[in-house]
Amidase domain-containing protein
Amino acid sequence: MASHAANLWVLLGLGLAGIFLMTKKLKKTIKADFGAFIQKLELLPPPQPAPPKAPHPLTGLNFAVSDVFDIEGYVTGFGHPDWLRTHEPSTRTSPVVLALVEGGATCIGKTVVDELAYSIHGENKHYSTPTNPAAPARIPGGSSSGAAVAVAADFVDFSLGIDTLGGIRVPAAFCGVIGFRPSYGVISNTGIIPVSSSLDTVGLFAKDPSTLRRVGLVLLQLPFSVQRNPKQILLADDCFELLKIPKDRISQVVTNSTEKHFGRQVLKHENLEKYFSSKVPSLKEFYSQKINGDPKISSLTLLANVAQILQRYEFKHTHGEWINSEKPVLDSAISAQINETLDMTDKEIEICKSVRTEMRLAVNNLLKDDGILVIPTTAYPPPKLGSKEIFSDDYQNRSFSLLSIASISGCCQVTLPLGYHDKCPVSVSFIARHGGDRFLLDTVQTVYSSLQEHADTVAKSKLSPNAVKQEHSAEAVKEKVSIIL
């Protein structure tokens, strides 16, 4: 039976069959699907309702899902062949996936995730690392690496993943696409393999804000409401100090776009280190319990520590028995984290949970109903494939200091691409209070085009006359690879 999904794969096959992309620099064959997909399948939407009823809201869109979502008849692989081997096919499809199909979208495949969806790097030695279409010599970011790559390479209109400590936001930033981490708990996690139950959130990748909003409203099941403009845009100055690229490459773009749409008076500055120190008292208690008297440690670093401890603790609680019985071969870095003895008392775990509760209240009080917090998504540009940089303390601390803000508070965050710097994708993140998802999506739709225009202007102003800005993933690939027929 001919179908939209089948036709899509035929077209891709005709366009890419027999073509292998290779570079001496990478020493790697790039697959026709950029290594994004682990399984091709087809879930078709129901027939359109008869007029005068409105057509399905997602008609004409296709999508993929990370291999942590259950689909009836398929084993959910969780990024590891041993998990695949030791589990049975799912008997039901995740309600989130069903909602999108019933909304008119066609699901065409499952995508690669990091081993046990645990890291934020995107490298998987068992299924090979998906190729970052925006920067093929760089890691794609994880855990939902394949889902981000599928969108960045234009194989799908949108894709689903899971964000625990950056599983959506990091690959969105590294691959140059939009990534949305909704408020914690607003989308059901039923039919999804958990990583950390108090941090996991179903997330979404898209190439444009219109698609993001269309899909987001279906997932969130929100009633209609009048669009509101933000009354304050808060730039987190201390977070921008963490950047390893010039901070004005991002802050100037946001400032220019904000002034254009909402006026200069809306723009404000905030020091989150000081704010969280005063508004999240359990961080001090955590500090006294776990940190050996380092007076220089910041509240953001403490927050990163809390987030990683919660992830490790909850992951081991859920999957420790399987790991102990099956003894899967794991990447050494992931294995070290998972198998590290957690010398945590019940009281210390309760302190971490108190931090989580206080963080949500603190961020909600800071932003209220009409505020947007602006931070860098990641401190570093995407590291090179195989780089040891991702294991350094500096990389880890800077990364999780930024990522833990939304993860711990449970607030919603959107990662937005802002062009390139030194041939690597650049991004910025907007955060709204918990439950402010529609407000955040509306704000993104309002400012997105302006952000891209100003990003282009700022990037060109920094370039030498002979430099050429990369604007499309296809151009990035063409520059870095040669095509061998």
Observations:
- The longest helix spans residues 299-326.
- Residues 37-279+352-462 form a domain with the Amidase signature (AS) enzymes fold (CATH 3.90.1300.10).
